[in-house]
Design a protein that fits this description.
AB_hydrolase_1; single chain; Pimeloyl-ACP methyl ester carboxylesterase; 219 residues; seven-stranded mixed β-sheet; AB_hydrolase_fold; catalytic activity; alpha/beta; Rossmann fold; Carboxylesterase_BioH
Amino acid sequence: MDLFTRTWGSPAAPAMVLLHGASANGSTWREFAASFADRWHVVAPDQRGHGRSPRADDYSFDLFADDLHGLLDAFGVERAVLVGHSMGGVAAYRYAEKHPTRVAAMVLEEAPPPVPLGLRLPPRPEGELDYDWELRPRIIAELNDPGPDWPRRLAGITTPTLVVAGGERSHLPQHEIAAMAELMPAATLVTIDAGHLVHETRSDEFAAVVAEFLGDTNR
């Protein structure tokens, strides 16, 4: 899977990979990436089926994680900070489960927790889409029926992790996001009352919280 990728900053700097949510693409991170480009090599792919990356025959969180593994190898990155929003957050924590030594730290922004969510598939929007509609039912089905081992696998993640919840305006159950943070032994929970799109709605506050967290993990 060849992913279209945007980059900011020097390749010699520590790597930060930004993973967008479903139906978005890497351009959603432009403002956030610009605020970190002076000290990080920021990489924001369009994940499979999104934006300018190819459509695929199949979609799953494990496949998103496998694509991330290939991306890090292609850039010669041994360890990266992962910042994932929603679907991208799940891809990040699935990757950390599989390859813990490749992840220096994680930021999970409004990442769906490992419980049945009862999400409904919305009607397909009319016209041409910037993503493959076929991925929506497959991702929603996986979130509505996560494997019984998902909580156990999360509990095995020892990577320093910042869990960012969006507060009451989010459609995700906030108490379950808090419970997810409790599962991970090195996780910290922060709530920014912005709804689901924290990095867009409260961009400065989100960037400040992430910067503070990364300073803590580097001490």
